[in-house]
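Appendix B: complex inputs.
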Amino acid sequence: MVGLSTLVSRGDHRALAKAITVVEGGGEACRRLIHEIYPRTGRAFTVGVTGPTGTGKSTLVDKMIEEYRKRAQRVGVLAIDPSSAFTGGALLGDRIRMMDHSLEKGVFIRSMASRGDIGGLARAARNTVRVLDAAGMDIIIIETVGAGQAEVEVASAVDAVVVVLMPQLGDEVQAFKAGFGEIGDVFVVNKADLVNPSKTMYNIASGLKEKDGWRPPVLKTVALKGTGVPAVVDSLERFRKHLDDKDLREKRAQGRIEQELIEAAFSDFHRETVDRLKTRKEWTGIVNQVVKRQLDPETAASKLVKTISKLGD
Amino acid sequence: MVGLSTLVSRGDHRALAKAITVVEGGGEACRRLIHEIYPRTGRAFTVGVTGPTGTGKSTLVDKMIEEYRKRAQRVGVLAIDPSSAFTGGALLGDRIRMMDHSLEKGVFIRSMASRGDIGGLARAARNTVRVLDAAGMDIIIIETVGAGQAEVEVASAVDAVVVVLMPQLGDEVQAFKAGFGEIGDVFVVNKADLVNPSKTMYNIASGLKEKDGWRPPVLKTVALKGTGVPAVVDSLERFRKHLDDKDLREKRAQGRIEQELIEAAFSDFHRETVDRLKTRKEWTGIVNQVVKRQLDPETAASKLVKTISKLGD
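Resulting structure:
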């Protein structure tokens, strides 16, 4: 019998879907799969696409897939749904439209809900990228629907980040400078046919700094018509070359791996330890004291830190 | 010299503002303040107001403040801004409008950004509620702007949750049933003058279950005109009486305290331990092996869990 990881390597779409379900589930089954495929990863170029809702990220990703296909690249897409349960329905149309590409060979699209904890989502997303990487995808795009903490965290765990905005975001451009300005490697002002995008482009560009010899370009697109999309892909290819030329890819990857290992290890430690903590007599005593207001929660937490430190004994 | 916690107890507005800044900062200064004020807390009734953006939560909270003032209640409001840096600007108008109440005696309003981690925000919010409680507020309202994971978590750490919706949310009502249906104690269909709210109200009500002898009411309001707001406050008072009559308040509080202590203790443990982990020679070895793809990240994480368990030795 051929194992799942072998089928993944052959690019079998059903095996891919199944493998992603395994990594979403976490635990030992996930660890074994990642253990098998990890040596075959690292070849794909990963791109995060993020920005406020309503700027046309899905449409842009759609057209980027087409452009990459024209260049004979195999494309994997992971679309992260927002953490809000409310907006789920409204976005389904977009997702289904994107799925059209799934029928095509050389494109694989998967969406992932962010209902759970942010750490768990980021971990599942990273491992999904590994599955797509092992399956031979040349380009892997992570698209986030919203622009919350979860989405930013996920979109940053990639080689290149594309931040999508639109003309006349007004106050939001100010807010943007404080947040997304730092994580973008390529900036796109989409819907550039609605209003003259020059002022928005200028505002964005004036807030950007050169980093490691790369000055993030600010490009305009009309994604719905495909206008400007080849230039976005060109910029990403230039950025990839820049990373390779300056040996920055491994350096950046190392920082991400350190971050990932810390998060995963403490999360697993928490999961494995919390039940043991609750069996301790100190636990019951402390909770009762806090409920009766004989002990405050902050002092209680510092006492529990000591209990946790001793659980490994 | 009179200490900060004493000034807080006297309801001094400047002391309140300062105390909240202290709890937002966390650490030992926060622990000391909470230690001092905690015995004087537990009197206020805390209400979370949550729901999708655009349903008029801020306006409703505004009118609820007015209604509570008519009933001679002192009201503290904590408004949680969304985690997205993008929407910050657009909502500022609402916040400033709300601040009008701040000039009035008996009302204190504070906003808090959710830029950081969700756990940190929830902790700061809980401690802010304690400060407002110790300051003698009778009612403390936590209003969340969005409906993301962070907002839901914060809004749930209260005695009563009000979920605000509006007529014809369509698909969102379906999504809502999966998410917010479970956390609401009172449901409000606001903007009931725009479209007939009957169908939306029926859809919501049909998805709700009785819990501990309480069937959540579904009310309609036109917050902008104040219509229906006294009934919302009446429902909250009835719910409060229900909790007291059935001794549910302490039972519910105990569950929240257990959750809080687990989160705070593991978060502090993480913070105090992570630097020590990074000085271990195993750490450097494991990171290098993962970067070179000799070891996969999931197996690496499970090795690090063992290292973390031994750090307390």
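Chain A touches chain B through 79 residues (CB under 8 Å).
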